[in-house]
Amino acid sequence: MGEWQLRRSLPGLAMEAGLGEVRRVHHERWHALVLVIAKLGLDWATVLFLMEALSELDFDPGVRPVAVFIWLGGSWGGLVYWLLVRGGRRWYAVCDGGLLVGMGGTETTAIAWDAVEGAALVQGGEARRGSWRLFWLDGGKQRYVTFRTVTAREALVEAIELREPVPTPPAQRVLAGTGLVAVASVVVWAVTLSPLSDVVMASRPYYLRDFARLCTNSDAPYAKAAPYSASGPHPVVLFDEEHGADPVVTSAGKGSGDPDPDDVQLVACSRLEQRTFDMTCAFSGGWSVTYYQGRYRIDVYEARTGRRVGGQTVVADNHLFCSGILVRQGEGGGHEEDVSVPAQEEYQRIIDGVAAGLP
Q1: Are strands 249-251 and 236-240 parallel, antiparallel or unpaired?
Q2: Which of 88, 209, 348, 349 has the CB geometry, 3.0–4.6 Å to 245, for a possible disulfide?
């Protein structure tokens, strides 16, 4: 039986021990604020790690919300279980007829008021910060338990001294509820309203490689990507089928270097449209290669809406004659096919024109 179940059974346990009604429960205090801050920091770092890992593994950005919510649900659920169910904390139930003390597990000790000797500060301690000891007699033998960081410690000491429960002030209940609401609000903000939320929900790109999904599904744009303006420059990133989610070339429209993902307006997708026989070359060892000239269609999409805004074709003619040496493993030879692809310089020339707003 866990601590949470034990706490729910306190009224019955108190009655069985002859202590009457449970009026108030004090428990060892977890440093909640430190714990929540540390947990939020861990969540932030984990979300960044998940996004990086999913991106490197070429997962669709739409997987991010699922992965993040699985992590948040599992980790916060585990934390709540650890705090409230698995337990391990000592607690003190103040009853009409005495104290019921939980020793951090399923073990409980019932102490009638007439057996309580009192509470005293541990030698050298301060009333507000030091540790206290509860003394009682058990079969004529003195026993004690030490407590320091417990909820409403002053009220527990007062109850021990008065030999009667000290009620919980209404304002304290409101404050506890407010604290729970505050923690929940921080979690909701971190997931839905913080700058990271748009990335988690895949409505804003985080990496340039995120834009590759428009080449496989133009109905999955980024609603918070940079808007496509009527006049240039139009920062653009180009992908092809050979490199997958890795950008082949980029253009910021002005200056040099890759554009920031938040500035990208257009996504260019190069696809093989047709291949035409070029030549077949024979190599030593029984190997041969048939070369094809590839014609590629470059479609340009608006990153924010997925709307196609332009396109053109380019023919890759990289095979002029048979030459060189073909090195392959194994014996017996074989046959391969090779389709030419546009040179990176050709791609760069094309998207530089797109970024500059040229037709």
Answers
A1: antiparallel
A2: 209
Q: How far is Cα 131 from Cα 93, in angstroms, rounded to an integer?
A: 19
Handedness of CA 12, 14, 20, 21 (dihedral sign): negative
pTM exceeds 0.90:
no
- Bridge-based pairing of strands 98-103 and 108-112 is antiparallel
Report residue 344: phi and psi, to 5°.
-60, -35
pLDDT at residue 195 in the model: 53
Number of Cβ atoms within 10 Å of the Cβ of 120: 14
Report whether pLDDT(210) > 60: yes
Give which of 219, 268, 207, 213 is closest to 244, Cα–Cα: 213
Helix (H) or strand (E) holding 275: strand 266-283
Q: Which residues on neighbouring strands pair with residue 271, listed in sequence order?
A: 297
The CA distance from 126 to 136, in Å, is 22
> Residues near 335 by Cβ (< 8 Å), separated by ≥ 6?
287, 288, 289, 290
Alpha helix segments (H runs only) across the chain? 3-8, 10-16, 32-56, 63-80, 153-162, 170-188, 197-200, 213-216, 344-355
Tens digits of residue pLDDT in 66-88: 777 777 777 777 766 666 555 55
